Amino acid sequence: MKRCFVFAAGSYYGLRERPGDSGDFIVAADAGYRVCLEECIRPDLLVGDFDSMEPPADFARVRRLPVEKDDTDTLAALRAGLERGCTDFLIYGGTGGRRLDHTLANLQSLLFLRRRGALGFLFDNDFLWTVIENGEVRVARTVEWGLLSVFCLGDRAEGVDESGVQYPLSNAVLTPEFPLGVSNHIVEPSARVSVRRGALAVGWELPPLA
Predict the structure, then answer these.
(1) Residues 41, 119: Cα–Cα separation, whole Å
(2) How far does the chain reach from its first CA to its final CA, in angstroms?
(3) 154 and 176 Cβ atoms separated by less than 8 Å
(4) Of all residues in the chain, what percent carry a pLDDT higher than 90?
């Protein structure tokens, strides 16, 4: 497992896990560089079109992107991590802010990672998101009565099971026009979410940072 930490320019709610010295690859996307400075983290790479800040004069490892491009700055950072062989991506600053469109783009980018053999984890405000496709995820309960939400990414998701939760599902079908999976609760030590065919965005509550 090789981890990539990505710091984007959205809302930052605190660092849940600090990069270690075991080969973690750290990428700042545009103004996400300011979070790195705040946390005394020196990124390995800074990418972006720099519409939110000017690249620092004292930082040499910069990948400047054109303003008119297909990739968001965050997706470009994820591509850089894939180039380095990373398999687990921890994304901070990828939600909130003034741009709901970027939050949605970053949720879709989790599916981009999954389809390239990697796992992405998007940190929100005391909430964590990932994506599964034709597979499963197990979530430990770390908050009493902790929230769990599941959304279809695509036309439909078939064979959806949820166990260890207040409202279990068995061989269900989830579709994008009806948010059946919102605001469940984890009632067992862990919950399991699986889908036989299709993609799901899965989010769960985290304990508040001290």
Answers:
(1) 22
(2) 28
(3) yes
(4) 85
